[in-house]
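Table 4 source record.
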Amino acid sequence: MSKFEILSLLISTLAAVISCVSLVRTRKLAKEQIELEKVTAELSRLQIESIAEEKSNKTKPKFNVTLTKLGKSYNFYISNTGQGSAYNVDFDLIDCSDTPLSTRELQDMFPHQEMKPNSRIKLMAAIHMNSPRKYQAKLTWENEGGEKYEEIFWPTM
């Protein structure tokens, strides 16, 4: 073999080695790219779920029940701090044999037809020395679609 043929063989062998290395690196990069696309797709799915949950939370009411003392009188406050309205809101004290609430006031106020966002209901409470310090209150309501919800609160003095 002549020098020219040997040189041609070396150059072509070198080109084949470079091509093989390039092929291996390209496959590795393609595999990483596919993994990255899977992660991006999963993140996109989670973000879409988060946006949908956020959107549904904007139409939901969020309630809070507190028992506060103002001067010498006590009041139960039922507040809607959410961004959605609640319908047919009802309020009950559970397992309370000596209720501090007026039966007439409860009958007049509840079920409350609609509680809009940032609204509240005030109920006078006749608290005395033998009254419990903690009450279990159940709040029930419906959303715009008529689905019923209930939540238990533990207001304390």
